Amino acid sequence: MSTPPEGPTEAIARRVTALRQRKGLTRQQLGEAMAERGVEWNRFTVSSLENGKRQNVTVVELLALARVLDVAPVHLFVPLEDDQPYRVTPKETLPAHRIRPWVRGIAPLPGMDSRIFSTEVPLAELRAWSGEERPVPPEEA
Length: 141
What we know:
Elements: H1 8-22, H2 27-36, H3 43-50, H4 59-69, H5 74-77, E1 85-89, E2 92-95, H6 96-103, H7 114-119, H8 123-130
Antiparallel strand pairs: 1-2
Helix pairs in contact: 2-3
């Protein structure tokens, strides 16, 4: 019997565990670092997430986790393994390599209207992609 596809919360839990350990942080330290960023977490919250007892992560929590763990948010909630099945919605599973470009705003998912997808992009990004102008990092602005 095969393992069910991983969804966002499961991916976040697995990645948080791996990244926390890679940085040498205890669950307590991760909780404290989250609290320093304004997200009231503690070691019990981290433990609940990593052990699969916590079923949801808010967008604010996701962004704070990415900040604290020094990664792009997409690399927390989408598996790094390209062919890993990923449950993008409760009824739709696609390989992870199809999800990352969609999250980054680079390519629509199969079945999406690519014209709509392409029009909902900030003008500065369109110009940067077309080579008209170089995006300026905030520290240079």
